[in-house]
């Protein structure tokens, strides 16, 4: 990468494995930089904790598998999430009560604005629900070259996140080792979500919306505080796009050859949900360029 004479953003596109992006139909007439930086280094902290430094281009699920095989807890609930390790802090990847902000101590990144490398502590990443400074204030500015995670030896202890508890109960898991939790999470994800290698999809297309308590009470989206009751268009096909039969948050491509079809279908869903519930769905995958 060439050195810049003055601070300015990198004009190209930086991607990881591409599992959470959508390209526009007109394509991109420019350089695309794919993160292929590998590496997995273990640093013993004490008898209870370990820090692992992982290259930004490492496949994320392989990182989880390796940590679980070593008997480390902290990221096992993030099993089978597609993408690269360097992408996990961008949207603060999370599932079943765990997210990357809970274990990330620091990351190294190339700053395309100032043509230098920076060490950024986890406390300076601006983490929130499916968000960080890297997909908001500093979108496109940093290329994450490595992440350092602080994991613990042993196993998770109850009480668990309700979604994780349901996952474990459904799979009859009572031995809460990282390996058993990973196995249960993988089984649950495979049952709910389509394999992107078989059915074209980006995983959850919408972020779970956050609404005020007043809106919650007024719209009565739930019959009880924690039980959803709305009927969803599961598996309903409009043109050549569809919602996945086991998880309506996932949009799948049945036969379309254009991003335009996807965006039309998405907007129909957004409009329908807004009209019925007064809630505006937010798209999760990035639309490039």
Layout: helices, strands, pairs:
Elements: E1 13-15, E2 21-23, E3 32-34, E4 40-44, E5 49-55, H1 60-69, E6 72-73, E7 94-95, E8 98-99, E9 104-111, E10 116-121, E11 142-153, H2 162-170, H3 178-192, E12 201-204, E13 206-207, H4 213-219, E14 222-224, E15 227-228, E16 237-238, E17 241-244, E18 247-253, H5 259-277, E19 282-283, E20 286-288
Parallel strand pairs: 1-3, 2-20
Antiparallel strand pairs: 4-5, 5-11, 6-11, 7-8, 9-10, 9-11, 12-18, 13-19, 14-15, 16-17, 17-18
Helix pairs in contact: 2-3
Distance N to C terminus: 20 Å
In percent terms, what proportion of residues is strand? 25-35%
Largest sheet: number of strands, sense, barrel closure? 6 strands, antiparallel
For this structure, the CATH topology of the largest domain is Uridine Diphospho-n-acetylenolpyruvylglucosamine Reductase, domain 3
Strand-pairing-aware structural class? alpha+beta
Helix content: 10-25%
The low-confidence parts are 1-6, 227-233
Number of distinct helices: 5
Give the topology string: H per helix, E per strand. Answer: EEEEEHEEEEEEHHEEHEEEEEHEE
**What is the CATH-assigned architecture of the largest domain?**
2-Layer Sandwich
What Rg do the Cα atoms give? 20 Å
Please tally the β strands and state the result: 20
Mean pLDDT: 84
Shape: globular
């Amino acid at each position: 990468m060439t050195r810049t004479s003055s601070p300015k953003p990198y004009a190209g596109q930086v991607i990881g494995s591409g599992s959470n992006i959508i390209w526009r139909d007109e394509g991109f007439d420019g350089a695309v930089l794919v993160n292929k930086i590998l590496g997995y280094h273990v640093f013993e902290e004490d008898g209870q904790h370990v820090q692992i430094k992982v290259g930004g281009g490492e496949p994320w699920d392989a990182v989880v598998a390796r940590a679980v095989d070593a008997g480390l807890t902290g990221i096992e609930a993030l099993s089978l999430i597609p993408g690269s390790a360097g992408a996990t802090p961008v949207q603060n990847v999370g599932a079943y009560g765990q997210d990357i902000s809970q274990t990330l101590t620091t990351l190294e990144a190339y700053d395309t604005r100032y043509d230098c490398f920076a060490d950024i502590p986890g406390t300076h990443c601006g983490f929130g629900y499916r968000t960080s400074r890297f997909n908001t204030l500093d979108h496109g500015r940093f290329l994450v070259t490595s992440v350092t995670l602080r994991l613990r030896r042993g196993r998770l202890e109850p009480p668990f996140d309700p979604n994780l508890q349901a996952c474990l109960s459904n799979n009859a898991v009572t031995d809460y080792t990282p390996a058993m939790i990973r196995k249960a999470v993988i089984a649950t994800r495979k049952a709910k979500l389509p394999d992107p290698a078989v059915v074209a999809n980006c995983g959850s297309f919408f972020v779970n919306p956050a609404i005020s308590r007043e809106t919650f009470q007024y719209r009565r989206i739930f019959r009880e505080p924690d039980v959803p009751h709305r009927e969803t268009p599961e598996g309903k096909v409009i043109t050549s796009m569809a919602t996945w039969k086991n998880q309506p948050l996932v949009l799948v491509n049945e036969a379309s050859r254009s991003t335009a079809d996807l965006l039309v279908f998405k907007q129909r869903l957004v409009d329908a949900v807004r009209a019925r519930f007064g809630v505006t769905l937010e798209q999760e995958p990035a639309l490039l360029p």
